[in-house]
Amino acid sequence: MAPFLPATLYSTSLPLAAVAAGQREQQQAVAYSVAESSLAQRFTMAPAPAEKKIAMYSKDFYLACSLGGIVACGATHTAVTPLDVVKCNMQTDPKNYTGIVQGFRKIAGEQGIKGLFRGWVPTAFGYSAQGAFKFGLYEYFKKTYSDMAGPEAAKKYQNLIYLAGSASAEFFADIALCPMEAVKVKVQTVPGYARGLADGLPKFVQQEGVGGLFKGLTPLWGRQIPYTMMKFGAFENVVQMLYKHVVPKPKSECNKSEQLVVSFAAGYIAGIFCAVVSHPADNLVSKMNAAKGVPAGEIIKEMGWVALFTRGLPLRIVMIGTLTGLQWGIYDAFKVYVGLPTTGSAEPEKK
């Protein structure tokens, strides 16, 4: 019997309307795919811009090193303000401040806990400025002097380059530090002088003039330049020795965390030498800033050479060793953060 209706209407295949709808969907899918592909080529599949890296010894490199110095020196010196307060009082008033523990108790008992943090603002500003010049200019002068010497001489006389570079950097760093250091010592050692930087700086300038802020610059150079020469020269050499004799693999095979541990250890060891070398001048600077108008020769005569070299030294070793270790660790951590290598290297190959 012939079917009453056309076969297409009851066939198991899709109806014409469904077929047409499917064709439309397929065309839309193709159009969407083309549009998506076009967008992908324009946006997604376009080559990503290369990550910007800091070129070694470029302006950005020295800027990054200066910023690292600000973080390293400003943060660490501010953090150990209580130790600095006790040390300065032991140096300027040894009759009333006879020891580290006694000094802490006396200041806390008379002035409260806040007395141990007196002068932290000029400390933060002064040593942040110093750190910027110290680390940024050290990298600059080390590179400059190496280029002036040439590859062979730079390798042969690398220690002289470390010392010359660090001394040159510290010369300028101390000019930046000196005004804040003068105010800091006054605030920390003269009872009732001022609460901090805001009232201490105007009072200092009113009493001693702007030039008075720099009266301690020469002894500051005497303290800080040998300290920094030891800090950088010893650090560079200790890093080499640690990689050669202690670390079981070359620096190139160490990950960043391992390299930062080496930086901290080398910095702490260098800090011990720094404290001993710079301590006589540190005593002199503290005394000169605390006693208005007293010449260096008279202070040395009053203190005596033994006291000049030893008074407050144990505390300074702990303080400077910790400071220097933390500074190198923080500085190199900052360099790693911005994509730069850590400071120092394995011993140069001998040819």
UniProtKB/TrEMBL annotation:
Q: Which GO terms describe its biological process?
A: mitochondrial phosphate ion transmembrane transport
Cellular component (GO) terms are: mitochondrial inner membrane
Molecular-function annotations in GO? phosphate transmembrane transporter activity
Whether Transmembrane helix counts among this entry's keywords is yes
Compartments it resides in: Mitochondrion inner membrane
Solcar repeat start-end pairs: 60-144, 157-241, 258-337
Where the protein is mainly located, per its record?
A: mitochondrion
The record ties this protein, via Gene3D superfamilies, to: Mitochondrial carrier domain
Q: Please state which protein family the record places this protein in.
A: Belongs to the mitochondrial carrier (TC 2.A.29) family.
The protein's name in its UniProt record: Mitochondrial phosphate carrier mitochondrial-like
